[in-house]
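Q: Protein A?
A:
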Amino acid sequence: YANIILLMPSQDLNESLTILRRRNEISEGIPDFNTLYFKDTTFWDIAKFVVYTKGKTPEETCEEVLGKVTM
């Protein structure tokens, strides 16, 4: 598949997990799927592109994604 894009808040895995836990209102001690997914390399292996969203508006993220898939 040519256009598999991994969207991450940050290049720092722990920061990304913290941000996603806040977004999903996951309490400490409760397992969340983000931790399981990000620590598994499968998503990283199949992704053709990684787009980091921290500090970007949804529109800026969209533009970056579209720029990657139309290359």
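Q: Protein B?
A:
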Amino acid sequence: AAEKFILRCSKERGAYEATADWLNKLSVREIPVPVVLSKGTDGDHSFLILSYIPGDDIGTVYDELNDDEKKQIAKEVVAIQRRVSRMDIATDRDWTWNDFIDELMDRAHARIKRNRRFDTDKIHTLKKLQQEIKEYLDAVRPTPYLDDISTKNLLIYGGKVSGIIDIDWIGLGDMLTFAALTRVALLNMDLDTKYVDDLLDEIHPNAIEYKAFVFYCLLYCVDFMGERGMQFLDKEIPVNEGIVKRLNDIFDILMREWNRCCEW
């Protein structure tokens, strides 16, 4: 059979410089990412040619995975995140984790206000919770991690991790956010969250870290709310009464969990 490749094209000059750079840095650390075979420009297009990794997004095949496979995938993913965390990345001197959280909340607030499908009071609630764990959030260092491997970008083949794709940047901060994003994405897809439990078993969060994890889940829940009905390039994020109800229900479940954390 002919060998497969991935070709990415963009009209933006130097569109893939950062992507190629990250992929090269990650592959040196034995992270299963595509190999950069070639990059450059052709006329007014930038291009990137990558090796092909077989597999499907974990969200696509999640229902087919058994508990042992989920556990093994979680073990491998946390090991990958730990390898990424040892990378040396320069950050702005004025970097703070709270700035990232504020940005996410402000964006969600603006979108929710514009779309008028959800209650902006939820953002005010989150701002209060942020103050409750301010000391923890203030202490978060700019640690590198893969922030966009939730139900997508993590490829599974034969019940195992085959690769990680679509790395155009790397997150800096608290690795627990990727587990929180995964949990909200699974809940939103009406799937079980066993895999996230397995991730947490590998990460071993203490009481305050777990509380922060629940806060991040709430944060991504309002982020999902803000996206409903929005147009991104050629894709509109669907919204209807059922979707609105589900996200509101998820928010309520997470708030109850936060309140339980406060009783510990």
